[in-house]
Amino acid sequence: MKSFLKYTLATIFGVFISFIFIGVLLFFTLLGLINSGTEGKVSVKSNSVLELNLDYEIQERGSQAFLSLLNPEMGESFLGLDNLLEIINRAKNDPKIKGIYLKTNLNNSGYATLSEVRNALKDFKSKGKFIYAMAPYYDEKNYYLASIADSVFIEKTGNILLNGLSANVMFYKGAFEKLGIEMQYVKVGAYKGAIESFTREELSPENREQISFYIHQLYHNLIAEIGESRQVDTHQLRMAIDQFTIQSPKDAFNFGLIDGLTYQDDVHNKIRKAIGSKDSKNKHVIKASSYLNSGESEKNTSSDKIAVVYAVGEIVDGQGNNNSIGSTSLAKVIIKAREDKDIKAIVLRVNSPGGSALASDIITREIALCKGKKPIIVSMGDVAASGGYYISCLADTILASSNSLTGSIGVFGLFPNMQKLFNEKLGLTIESVKTGQYSDFGRVDKPLSDGERMYLQQMVNRIYDDFTTIVEKGRGIDSAELEKYAQGHVWIAQHAMERGLVDRIGGINDAIKMAAKMANLKTYKMVSFPQIEDPITQLFNQGGNELINKKIAQDLGIFHHYYQSLLSGIQSQGFQTRLPYELFIH
């Protein structure tokens, strides 16, 4: 007995000491992480070159810098579009920065995001500074970004693939049939094809038409901008890409798209020559993440503020998270911005394919309450469609990137019938005792009856009427005219502007400048919502999930979009105002 007590007490004491040790270790680890982001500013040497490594999918907002320390292999992939635009703009006006070394590779960012970065780089060059671009591989996306550079280089053993754009949609109907699942639906809008991935095995004629319309205009935009930057004839460039005659780096060099087949150390030698440096250790190069933490923050004593409210991800009921827009959480943010007397204008940055109709309506109401109190400007990212357009249409002005996808004014509902899965695959049966004919409405083990389907159709009709009424009010478009552009039809920004759905082509910085002008502000501070959590809170609440999500995206590569599409469809609940398809354009 004594022996038992002795070992038991020893074990308890050992566990106690271990917890203390782990706690102390965790404390100092967190302290080190926090100090790493808050210690003295990085010094920028004169005659420096900024290195931008953009070989990852760029998100709207950057993560806390210390998160990258948890997985250094991810490099600078935690820098968001907000960080990149700030870095490039600061470097443009920094006399110590003479140029940018742009490193690219496979990039799954949206074309509107790439366009914003590209425009910022173009603005950087307006100050007489140079940009050199280098990659081991070029496709349409990263070449579009790199083409703004003064000189574009490729690894000698690298490759280039410029063969035009294709939009791929994956269909899950066959897989569901094998599982014994039937996806039933109701919808409004001939072009509202969100249900097609789950109910068809091929695109409908309407959906094929609008996808073709979109990617051809996008393709036109890319050709025009590349042709202008590289000073090549756009007609000849389009023919070369369409006929697939640029099949090697040498072909691209002969056509004038590439300035040299070389290695990274050779590019560094060219950079050193450009800035007149003899340093062989590349000490003149400063990475983007380091530059973000350099220099003194601008002293601005103005009490006037412009709020940038980020609405990024699918629109869901309730709180949402880092990858979704919660109706409750975003509504609170808008209320806060609306009631803060120091905030003189609001920029709503929308990058969303839509989602819950109810959540979209709740958010839109809060935006409506801003009208007349302070200017509210919408800046559209890669996509602001369906519910994303719903929450945008009441703004005073809507700006969209030239490559933004918007519109999709329509509604649908998906309702699974798992009768075969339960009965034939799993051997499960369900019996219901009810008081009325429709008391068991909502069961997933039986098909919809005619009466139930009629009820659901009437509901989506009412939601569609509410949607179009909001658009008519916000955009001042007659109902008969709007119906020509609604019906779930998706538009690229230029076509949306021609139809009155968008006011101007421009990026988020243009939207901020417009907001300042409308609020008559010459000096102001920027505040962003939702606010970034402090490092410790973010580590425990989100850090792990964010690392996991980035790792999944990294491992799945091009298949990550299909994974997200399937996950989104399965998780969709209630009536949805969502983009009619998940496109992977490459």
- Gyration radius (Cα, Å) is 27 Å
CATH third-level topology of the domain at 305-410 and 446-542: 2-enoyl-CoA Hydratase, Chain A, domain 1
How much helicity do the residues have? Answer: 40-55%
Q: Ends: how far apart?
A: 72 Å
What can you tell me about this protein's structure?
Strands 9, 12, 14, 15, 16, 18, 19 and 20 form an 8-stranded mixed sheet that branches. Helix content is 45%, strand content 20%. With 586 residues, the chain is an alpha/beta fold. It is built from 22 helices and 22 strands. The termini are far apart. Residues 36-40 and 65-73 have low confidence and may be disordered. β3, α5 and β4 (151-160) form a beta-alpha-beta unit. Among the domains are: 48-162 and 246-292, 2-enoyl-CoA Hydratase, Chain A, domain 1, CATH 3.90.226.10; 305-410 and 446-542, 2-enoyl-CoA Hydratase, Chain A, domain 1. It is globular.
What descriptive keywords fit this protein?
alpha/beta; 2-enoyl-CoA Hydratase, Chain A, domain 1; 8-stranded mixed β-sheet; 6-stranded parallel β-sheet; 22 helices; globular
Q: What can be said about this structure in brief?
A:
The protein has 586 residues and is of the alpha/beta class.
SSE blueprint and pairings:
Elements: H1 2-38, E1 48-54, H2 67-70, H3 81-92, E2 97-104, H4 111-125, E3 130-138, H5 140-146, E4 151-160, E5 167-168, H6 173-179, E6 182-188, H7 196-199, H8 205-230, H9 234-242, H10 249-255, E7 260-262, H11 264-275, E8 285-287, H12 288-292, E9 305-312, E10 314-316, E11 324-326, H13 327-339, E12 343-352, E13 354-356, H14 357-368, E14 376-385, H15 387-390, E15 397-400, E16 405-407, E17 411-417, H16 419-425, H17 450-475, H18 479-485, E18 490-492, H19 493-498, E19 504-505, H20 508-518, E20 525-529, H21 535-556, H22 560-571, E21 575-578, E22 584-585
Parallel strand pairs: 1-2, 1-8, 2-3, 3-4, 4-7, 9-12, 9-20, 10-11, 12-14, 14-15, 14-16, 15-19
Antiparallel strand pairs: 5-22, 6-17, 13-21, 16-18, 17-21
Helix pairs in contact: 3-4, 4-5, 13-14
